[in-house]
Amino acid sequence: MASIPTLLYYWSIFLMVELDAKKFGMREVAFDQTYRLGQLTYLYGFHFTSFIAIIVLMVIGYTPIMAVFWAIVVAFAVSFIRKDTAFIRGN
């Protein structure tokens, strides 16, 4: 039931960012197109695990607050899969 308000919320954020960018004369940001979408998903797809964890935990019966808490724990733990994406980096 909350999907439409959520989509409208993110659409409004997108519009406000675009309007502010035009207002302040921001230029287009050039980015490296070395990787395609499939390659980026393969390399960094683990970022979706927290979203999937929230859904799974709420289906199992956790409260939204506990589901988000455990999703944060999962995101922290999964960040260590790749050395360059770890939240805490050692020397």
Helix and strand composition category: mainly alpha
Choose one word for the global shape: extended
- Rg is 18 Å
Distance between the termini: 47 Å
**What percent of residues adopt helix (DSSP H or I)?**
55-70%
Mean of the pLDDT scores? 87
Could you walk me through the main structural features you see in this protein, from its secondary elements to its overall organization?
The protein is an all-alpha fold. The chain is built from four helices and no strands. The longest helix is centred in the first third of the chain and has 21 residues, at 3-23. The protein is extended. It starts with a helix and ends in a 13-residue tail after the last helix.
Structure, briefly:
This protein is mainly α. The chain is 62% helix and 0% strand. The longest helix is centred in the N-terminal third of the chain and has 21 residues.
Which secondary structure elements does this structure contain, and how are they paired or packed?
Blueprint: H1 3-23, H2 37-44, H3 49-60, H4 64-78
Helix pairs in contact: 3-4
For the structure shown, list the relevant keywords.
mainly alpha, 91 residues
